Amino acid sequence: MAVLKVKFTKTNRDKLAQVLWILNWVSVVTGVILFSLGLFLKVEINKRWELMAERDLHYVPNMLIATGLIACGINFLGGKICYDCADTTKFLRWKLLMLPYVICTFFFTFCILVGALMCYGMRGELEEALDLGLRDAMRYYKDTDTPGRCFLKRTVDLLQIQFQCCGNFGFRDWFQIQWISNRYLDMSRREVVARLRSNVEGKYLMDGVPFSCCNINSPRPCIQHQITNSSAHFNYEYQTEELNLWRKGCRQALLEYYTHIMQSIGFTVLIIWLFELSVLTGVRYLQTSLENVLRQGDPDSESDGWLLENSFVETARSNFNIIKSLGKCNQIDTANNGDPNINVPSTAYYGPDNLPSKQIPMAS
Question: Transmembrane region positions (predicted)?
């Protein structure tokens, strides 16, 4: 029994072909949108690539870019096919290609769905990449004279100012690393030398943060040094004071930023997937209805169209049998301990009776 069978008149078939021709051209535009979304995501990741650990995060934008390009090609071909299908005689040139086209388009729409789900599933890998990347960027913040790292101070400062964040998880992360280079430390001062010697690794650690952590909305001048020392500042209590530093960690700020982008892209891709699925459904109805017209031999007669000629169970069983029969064709009879030649009689043997009749004379 056919699945979702619909009866079409000639007028209905012609209108369906015209509507699908228009929708396929709209689908070309959606392919351009997919390509643009993938390109946009790729650019956004590359903007802050130095703040991320070495992770393969480009597979999602690359998937969207490739899907968008394929969408343009497939839907352009689909528009041409639907335009010709308005005339039953022109359908003959596409008859053999229609079913492979429908199958390929089905797998293509499945790839669009996978791309949308990948946008939602990228958060975990992105969070890990940001955590490790920001940790390394803060560690190399002071290396302004080291080739390959001299730009990290400017990058981290701009990040903290733009996203109004401080540190990796919070401003206390700066207390655990040396973010001032030794070239800017006065080694003649006793307290500086004592602080360096007090640390096992010889690092100059202090309860201070870079200037970019200061909250510009605070009415009080920024307190970025001796943050935990209440007596070092007038009318200041570390435990109860509302700090004039950014409270949010940069990992959380960046994760929220990229999550918003990926959720928006994922939702847009899901809408495109639903649209492509509806176009594919219409093309399938057009294909089956036109094939039934050819069987009847009357181009003006009514014809049935369907999604599947048999039920889902019967279709799955027939496809499984086809795959099973193909597997049997590639099998070799390996009975009797797996030797395919075990039952083949030998036509030659070695022995005195098998020697050549003409002997070569021995040398005297």
Answer: 20-40, 60-78, 98-120
Q: Domain check: are 21 and 67 in the same one?
A: yes
Last residue of a domain, one of 230, 247, 264: 247
Contacts of 165 (CB under 8 A, 6+ apart): 159, 246, 248, 249, 250, 252, 253, 254
Mean pLDDT of the chain: 82
Q: Of 154-158, 191-195, 248-252, give the lowest mean pLDDT range.
A: 191-195
Q: What are phi and psi of 6, to 5 degrees?
A: -130, 140
* DSSP one-letter string for 272-321: HHHHHHHHHHHHHHHHHHHHHHHHHT-TTS-EEE-SBSS-HHHHHHHHHH
Q: Which class for 70: exposed (0-12), middle (13-18), buried (19 or more C-beta within 10 A)? A: middle
The answer to whether residue 163 sits within a structural domain is no
Q: Are residues 132 and 63 in the same domain?
A: yes
The domain in which residue 275 lies consists of 2-137+252-301
Question: Contact 265/64 with Cβ under 8 angstroms?
Answer: yes
- On whether residue 353 sits in a domain, the answer given is no
- Cα–Cα distance for residue pair 79/293, rounded to 1 Å: 21
Domain termination site, one of 229, 247, 265: 247
Q: What is the mean pLDDT of residues 319-331?
A: 61
